[in-house]
Amino acid sequence: MTGILVLAGTPIGDISDAPPRLAAELTGADVIAAEDTRRLRRLTQALGVQPTGRVVSYFEGNEAARTPELVEALAGGARVLLVTDAGMPSVSDPGYRLVAAAVEKDIKVTAVPGPSAVLTALALSGLPVDRFCFEGFLPRKAGERLSRLREVVEERRTLVYFEAPHRLDDTLAAMAEVLGTQRRAAVCRELTKTYEEIKRGPLDELAAWAAEGVRGEITVVVEGAPDKGAEELDADELVRRVQVREEAGERRKEAIAAVAAEAGIPKRDVFDAVVAAKNAARSAP
């Protein structure tokens, strides 16, 4: 008889969010593979349980080397429990290699469903949730980050990202540059923790806010690309809409921003159209 691999979700903040089955699995597993054994110790203490199985570390640095060892234990009939620091294993955390290796050996894989920063942020964002895609962490290097963002310029689904707090301002600025300053987004900080905060707004405003410094665990949710089928406007129509708003009393800056938001395009595109029309009018005989 082969064993079973159990992926267990752990709290992303509030310890009381731990799924009820987690305590039983921690107690009954033959082997517990933990991303951080110190965090595992704090988790078991908070839950009031004492593991009886062998505890091993399983993190990015040793994931490839340790996977064969865990598969061997599974093949020998062991119940192996995989936990990461927070949330579900394999979701931007260790786990994929072990799951793939277990599946290849026809070993049963199951899960203890638990908290997820991706789904929690998505639900709290106020953005469409009917279709979404999880993009994980963007590259650290500026050029690679911009290239990755250009791949999703036309993505209609809501986008979900993880980001480190010290890179958040650069990431939001890059998103504003590539996806459009008025694209709606939500920065979800410290989800389920004492200082939970959801900051919503257009990307340019969020980038300015983040430039002041942000702390904590961060999940960013970004609105998908607008449907341009009915709102793909030429330069003349953009200028006309700006003029209508100006005639109604809006300042040009606000009119340009509003038209850009309606059309789902960068403010710079509308501004350039207005300037071109103004120059053309001056040069006309």
How would you portray this structure in words?
With 285 residues, the chain is an alpha/beta fold. The chain has helices at residues 20-28, 37-47, 63-75, 96-104, 117-125, 142-150, 168-179, 203-210, 235-247, 252-263, 267-283, and strands at 4-8, 31-34, 54-57, 79-83, 108-112, 132-137, 158-163, 184-189, 197-202, 218-222. The chain has a 5-stranded parallel beta sheet, sandwiched between helices. Helix 7 packs antiparallel against helix 8 and helix 9 (235-247) crosses helix 10 (252-263).
Layout of helices and strands, plus pairs?
Elements: E1 4-8, H1 20-28, E2 31-34, H2 37-47, E3 54-57, H3 63-75, E4 79-83, H4 96-104, E5 108-112, H5 117-125, E6 132-137, H6 142-150, E7 158-163, H7 168-179, E8 184-189, E9 197-202, H8 203-210, E10 218-222, H9 235-247, H10 252-263, H11 267-283
Parallel strand pairs: 1-4, 1-5, 2-3, 2-4, 6-7
Antiparallel strand pairs: 7-10, 8-9, 8-10
Helix pairs in contact: 3-4, 6-7, 7-8, 9-10, 9-11, 10-11
